[in-house]
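Fig. S4 source data, part A: sequence.
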Amino acid sequence: MTRTLALLLAAAYAALAGTAATAQDYPSRPVKIIVPFAAGGPADVYARFLGARLQESMGQPFVVENRPGAGAVTGTDAAARSAPDGYTLLLISNAHTVNETLIQNKPYALLRDFTAVAPINYSDLVLVVNPAVAANTLPEFLALARAQPGKLNYASSGPGTPYHMAGELFKAMAGVDIVHVPYKESSAARAGVLGGQVEMMFDAVTTMSEQAKAGKVRALGTSGKARSSVMPSVPTVSEAGVPGYEAVIWLGVMAPKGTPAAIVGRLNAEVTKIATRPEVRADWAKQGAVGMAMAPDEFARFVADDIVKWEKVVRISGAKADR
């Protein structure tokens, strides 16, 4: 009995020592960050920003791999099937928490197959219309949409994305009938609005504010509780005509379930350091993004709560995956 207990204690000690050594040596080779969205959007931009700074602090390349498709399911599934060793990470957004309800036949479940690592940031969205649309304000757009039910279209980068759900929430809360036009990526949706093929879209202020300032689109409202610091003259959707409306896009990092806790902890510490640096916060503020900081367990609860939030929106709005 004593010998057995000694062997178990020795094995446990060896396992703990091995985990500590693994975390201490990590990373010893390049780390891949799978971004399940196309290049050019906020997820891609901030993944590359994060990867470059993680490489500086951790001494190995953090390589972004864009794997778009099927409303973020393609790349996310690839990440879920990867070895849980810390060398494959997943860039997530609230598209993932929406998909938990919106897409029923996914080959993975977010909280079952992934471990929360750390949040990165969040930003408001902005409702923009092509300048040819006969509406200079949100009330004018609402009047136009109500006078022509089913005639106006809104673009998104695909089913379940924050742009799609912001539109569905807007439809439900404003009581308007506008038609969802899903594109395969955010840059294509953006081009559709800029080119006049689609009348409007909700887009991240981090990518669309400059187009609005240049007059290429007309900004009618931002989606946060307060006005955006980069578009202070644009009212919120809530104050301009749809009381209580709020929708943002947030980004974070997850890893395949089973990734050693020590590695998750180290990554969380490094991502948090980056997101809370004063110079980074100042730079992001100019773009309309706000850094986030949470421990892994806090971030897991945040993700779980967001799944519940968007489940309600999907049910109420009747949104479909369009797949």
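Fig. S4 source data, part B ends here. The longest helix spans residues 2-25.
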